[in-house]
Sequence to fold (454 residues):
Amino acid sequence: MGEQIPRIRHLVLVPLPYQGHINPMLQLGTALHSKGFSITVAHTIYNSPNPQNHPHFSFLPMPDGLSDSDLASGDLVSNIQVINENCKESLRRSLEQLMQEKELQGDTISCIISDELMFFAEDVANNLKLLSIILRTTSAATSFARCGLLKLGGEGQVSLQGSSSHDLVPQLHPLRFKDLPFSLTASFGKFAVLMEKAYSNRTSSAIIWNTIKCLEQSTLEKIQQQSQVPIFPIGPIHMIAPPVSSNLIKEDRSCISWLDKQPHNSVIFVSSLGSIASLSEKEVAEIASGLANSKLPFLWVIRPGSIRGSDWIELLPKDFHDAAGDKGCIVRWAPQREVLAHPAVGGFWSHCGWNSTLESIAEGVPMICKPCFGDQRVNVRYVSHVWRVGLELEELKREEIERAVRRLILHDEGKEMRDRATKLKKKFEICTREDGSSNYSLNELVNFIMSYDS
Ligand code: UDP
Fold:
């Protein structure tokens, strides 16, 4: 009898089309590709990834039905619903065809891995009798908080549009009411519907999590106790996957040569919005003055369109460039992980999206935290209060900003945060080594997928 040719095992990835979700999903694809799987990315037309960055992957576009006015509304919750309503049929048809093609080649589709908010993909997997796995791209603490928030909402214990109260939330310590992960644009009812879908009655067979045991072990244990399916914490995925860029905006690498000219630990890297949030002209003026008055070097990411009413930096105060002199460098989009790894960077002012939080800790960089909405609030509380590697900026006021930057970069308090961040960085390195917990979970995930397929 001739030797059997091993089948190629094929995975279909379905990311949510926002940068903070696309990055970990494509990093996961890269990690699994290095384990021998072939990868197809089923993506919306909106924010579609650049295939040239991922020459080993195949791509399946899905018409998402998002109109210009949907996109202009900035209403994430509604847009996620639109995507879920419109992509299902197209994914089902494309996968049926792909399954036939693979069968002819003697290969199989092993599994669909979908973002926790791309519910339709789970339905399609059930329909086609394929293994389905969820990728959660937020912290475990955020999941816990969202479930807690739903419960409090059901009991009428939270005001519907969020709260600024500093009181601790019963059952959710160390979170205060102001740290709960409310949506910025949606009503509580609409947000609750989306969260119910994300956390109840899921039919997937496992959960992959972009988090790391050394940071979130106790929360992960609580969640695993309540979960019917195995959880694989394999984060930070960018540390276990071969390097890959999935940025939707072109990175401006000129900031690296600017950083090369700055003293060690002297620069505050300001990327305070991530890929979604925006600022008013007044808020930008406060940031600009605070940075200039700190008299410290800064690298500031201003995403095109993130200052409301302008294309880019037209609305910065007229005297800003004189006030900042050669202390400042502004870019549209930075190679963030490379910037955080640069020795000149002494601190990171972040909105604390989960990827940014992990990336900052992974490089031992302490943070100034100012959340915009949702899970960022939970992350800020953990960064500043539990892991104590950052300080929270309460208000977007120039004096407060100037003080926070100087505290982080120059004062002992900042140095202590940097020392704690460096200790966590070392723990991250241990967990993501070949024999570390994240890589162990990745190997368990691979075995799990293979066991369904043999
Ligand atoms: N990012 C980047 N360059 C920038 C700003 C952000 O590469 O100038 C990347 C960052 O490294 C992170 C992602 O964009 O991986 C943002 O994800 P995060 O979860 O931090 O925030 P979100 O955009 O989802 O609010």
Residues 286 and 398 are 5 Å apart (CA to CA). The radius of gyration is 22 Å. The pocket of uridine-5'-diphosphate is lined by residues 18-20, 23, 247, 271, 274-276, 301, 333-334, 336-337, 353-356, 359 (CB under 6 Å).
